[in-house]
Amino acid sequence: MNDPMQHKLVEALDRRARDLDGQTLSRLRRARAAAIGQAEHHATWLPVGGWRLAGAGLAVALLVATLIPALYRPLAPPTLPEEEELLEIATLDTDLELVEEMEFYEWLSAQPLEEVAEGG
Questions:
Q1: Is the pLDDT at 67 greater than 80, yes or no?
Q2: Do both 27 and 56 map to the same domain?
Q3: What pLDDT digit, counting tens, does each position of 25-45 carry?
Q4: Is the Cβ–Cβ distance between 31 and 39 less than 8 Å?
Q5: Are residues 2 and 34 in the same domain?
Q6: Which of 12, 34, 50, 53 could in theory staple to 46 by disulfide, Cβ–Cβ 3.0 to 4.6 A?
């Protein structure tokens, strides 16, 4: 749109607006006031009860965000008794000769105490 055309259009609209009768102006003012009042009513982000709903939604979201990682946490792989024993041996600060004769010490610990004290 060019400027002279736009200027003529604005002048024509302004002239028609000035020439409106009182009844039309009154209806326009009432409609404008009603529209502004309705816009102010809907301008609130959340109605009063909406804050409860928003709070409940936030609580549910936090609960889900907390529980999901706990539910899907991978379980530790099962360990065999031999693996535990080997790990224990690897972390001990003992002489390797004792470790090599571990079966003997296990057998010895399984024997009743009286037999060991008597010598056989």
A1: yes
A2: no
A3: 899 899 999 988 887 666 566
A4: no
A5: yes
A6: 50
Tokens found for residue 15: 């002239």
The dihedral formed by the CA atoms of 62, 63, 65 and 66, expressed in degrees to the nearest 10: 110
**Domain residues for 58?**
49-73
Helices (H), the chain: 3-18, 22-42, 50-71, 81-91, 96-100, 102-110, 113-118
Stronger pLDDT, 110 or 119, i.e. the higher one: 110
* CA gap 101, 92 in Å, rounded: 15
Q: Which of 15, 17, 10 is nearest to 32 (CA)?
A: 17
> Alpha-carbon distance 55 to 108, whole Å?
67
Which pLDDT score is estimated for 99?
Answer: 64
When divided into structural domains, the chain yields a total of: 3
Percent of the chain with pLDDT over 70: 72
Calpha distance 10→32 (Å, rounded): 21
Q: Give the number of C-alpha atoms closer than 13 A to the C-alpha of residue 106, restricted to the C-beta side.
A: 6
In degrees, rounded to 5, the angle at the alpha carbon of residue 14 between the alpha carbons of residues 10 and 16 is 120
